[in-house]
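ok so for the tutorial part 2 we go from a plain amino acid sequence to predicted structure tokens. step 1 is just haveing the sequence, like this:
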Amino acid sequence: MMRFDIFSKKFNTLTILLKPHKINTYIGVLFLLISAPAYAQDTLIYKSEYLSKPDTVLIFKPQNFSPAKSLPLVYLLHGYGGNYNQWNSIIDAQKQADKYGFILVCPDANLNSWYINSPVKSKSQFQNFFFSELYPDILKKYHPNQKQIFISGLSMGGQGALNLFIQKPELFLSAGSSSGVMDLKKSSDKYGLTSLIGPSTEAGLWDDFSVLKLVEKLKGSEKPFIFDCGTLDPFHRGNVDLMEKCATLNLAATFISQPGKHDRQYWKKSIEKHFDFFTALIK
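step 2 — the prediction. this is what the tokens look like for a chain of 283 residues:
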């Protein structure tokens, strides 16, 4: 795994590849970086053996950031067709990092990786990338409180967040999902799942990758998590089904069904409920 920073407003993490005819330009950029506040965003790029192309990750550090402080950290996963900047474009991630005191980490899912290890594509192994490379490197670089790490996401990212939480709940204090696709069969074949998993007609195949099925692994766990969905959202039924499954398994799940569609306006208000939920767990 190779990692390098391409643009960081924290001087001691800066790496620039200079070309002779652009030296003056980079000197100007360097001056701006030195004078910028240390808590502003970092942009990292990971070249991974598990992915077909480099993965860009945005990190937003709150004003009180210091590696010595061991702050809480939240991974935010974007939706289908989005990218690492989707959450920032919805909520102003720096503002939210400052408000809640969270380090916010926004990875890229290569548009439609669904945050899974694909049994079809050898270079679409997002879970391996996340657990083997991204997660430990973020620990090393930002020194968060390892007992206060969370993960959440929207739509495809909601499915991804709960999926990653279910795979290794010991790495997170809690997780969240906004408008998550809990039953992959309900997404039909228009979101690239056949190319990632195989045909939906093959018995049980898509179920094995769905949170609605995977949540059974949490049986006996007391780890709390939250998920919500708008009542006008096409994936609302799958979230209701997940609520019923969690009740059957006696899990510490909080479900919010509220007015809303599958859109940015809904996610903007939804994620603050997740941040409030995470904050309450810390306190």
